[in-house]
User: Fold this.
Amino acid sequence: MPMKVLVTGGSGLVGSAIKQVIADESPLDEEWFFCSSKDADLCNYESTKQLFEKHQPTHVIHLAAMVGGLFHNMSDNLGFLRLNMMMNDNVLKLSHEFGVQKVVSCLSTCIFPDKTTYPIDETMVHNGPPHDSNFGYSYAKRMIDILNRAYHEKHGSTFTSVIPCNVFGPHDNFKEGVSHVIPGMIHRLHKLIYIDNPEVPQEQKEFIVYGSGKPLRQFIFSLDLGKLFIWVLRSYNSVEPIILSVDESAEVSIAQLAESIAKAFDFKGKIIFDTTKADGQYKKTASNHKLRSLLPEYKFTDFDKAIKDSVKWFIDNYDTARK
Assistant:
């Protein structure tokens, strides 16, 4: 009997990456179903149940979530908390009811305590409150780990979770005011170059970057994360979460990120930092020691190449990209 994998949030950034990896692999003993909000309202139990009845999954990758960048989170912590908790509870409850063998849910490094030591690792998730800017999303995501442990304790379920660092790549959400930092920057620079006063020479244009440019972040290319998600589904059998992140040495500043994006666009103007905008957390360096102990030879895509590929995808798919 083939493994039947239901992917919630299947049309999003990570779901699209997993879909591409699976298409390239063409596994003979697996059936994959990539579902989006058009297929079911995961905040509604009955709607979610109909999705499970339709596909009868043996395995689930749970990616669906209400997500957004720093400023979107700050404006609606209540919405992020309630909607994500409803989705997660329905997906895990129905996974149990339908006898799903394994669920892999997606968390985020923003769930870690605001005040902590670095690098952060999987044992530190619940050691203190998260950053105030996104506490709603963070606590909702933390509760997946609690649910996983509770289902395992009561029913022996293999429900686990991964904690990626900041993800970017093709099929991202590039909508201004909602997007994360990389797609937000890509969209704004594209607009500055090609849409806003295209007759003005690039050399005279200024690319405004929100904040000081000093905060540090680890970024993982979506296709790399897609491959690692599939590995977790097939080979990682602990209910304890695992961080899926690039190495600590791959951490870059927001200023370095802006320079990489400008280079990918071949932008000739100036980069200006708007220090009236919030920086968010200065750093949230994550340790991938656990991942490296299990997959020591894994090679991540070069950061500048991944940025260049993401910029090219956005330009090539501008008319249909989420913006």
Observations:
- The CA atoms of residues 112 and 124 lie 7 Å apart.
- The longest strand covers residues 158-164.
- DSSP finds ten helices and twelve strands in the chain.
- The radius of gyration is 20 Å.
